[in-house]
């Protein structure tokens, strides 16, 4: 780090760099497919949702425990109640209605929570509902509030829940779903904290929140997106040129190295900003697809259903063979994803030992994205199988493909992709994912 601390480097950095997503001289649109179509992220992200419910929730709960038991956070909620029983009671900030009539406006302890790379749709809302309900349960623990007290009587805390994503994200559909989310939470919570929501458009590689203002941040399935495709992999004259391919294959070490170094650069920016924004004791919860093996050639997915290096790559080759897309156009398209190995993240976090403590880092292997019987049923119906997985890919990258080759050819591209998957459905297997869970606390 050239003798500079991460925070110093942060101050020197050109912040506009993060928001530019240049690849072939154009702009990458790395947000998800919006709207209510079959391939919209909201409608097709069932595997991510299944993973949330089956694998992620318990880790998220652990992260919230760390937050709510951190002395710095507990202090926020401490009301000294010594006169009554000689003991300090944490987590109580109940005000009676008469407090509102006093001249001074009442103030409550406040928690700020953010979802980074929130997208829109069910996952986004499920994360928010889970975090908001679980936080309330934890904040109420230790409170001397009786069950008969109502929300009007008591406010334990105010929670600000912020949804953050790139400006191109479908914030409209997300915002439209917030009233029912909040109503659902109010219906379930015994004593609701007052909840406020908001949207923060911007890249998580850059600054998003004021300094020392954030208590908890979650980011799921988002941090494998790079801020850009490393320029050298698109440059014919570079030894790291990824000619003939749109995906990252482990057998091209120079390409892999270029992606790995872009990832490190991006993640360093991410951690620098979160180090600045999180309060002491604040917690970061990260879930991202990762590699199970340190060696870059280690397969990311079971080759029998590797959507990216298998079908997505083949669809591009077909488009080139049919003369619909030129070789050059294809070579100028690469997906800005990088799936790291946990060692890579750990080694980067060593640069931040003074500001972050890693509380958990766990690679979960073999995670399935659907109940097995549902996936088996899908496998037995090739057209449905092809449509589902083509839509799944489209939900993630259609805006990017459309940006690169235009609307008409992108429609042809995804139709080709669907028929490829349908044709080979009988050779496919249940898709398994490797995921990295990380919990980090701001020191
Ligand atoms: C696969 S979606 C994940 C959505 C959601 N968190 C979930 O678990 O379903 C990835 C999201 O990351 C967002 N994203 C990608 N790069 C980003 C960046 N640099 N800053 C903020 N969001 C980003 C995309 O726009 C997209 O909404």
Automatic annotation (TrEMBL):
Gene3D superfamilies: Methyltransferase, alpha-helical capping domain (1.10.1200.270), Vaccinia Virus protein VP39 (3.40.50.150). It holds the Pfam family Methyltransf_7. Keywords: Magnesium, Metal-binding. GO terms for molecular function: metal ion binding; methyltransferase activity. InterPro entries: MeTrfase_7, MeTrfase_capping, SAM-dependent_MTases_sf. This is Uncharacterized protein.
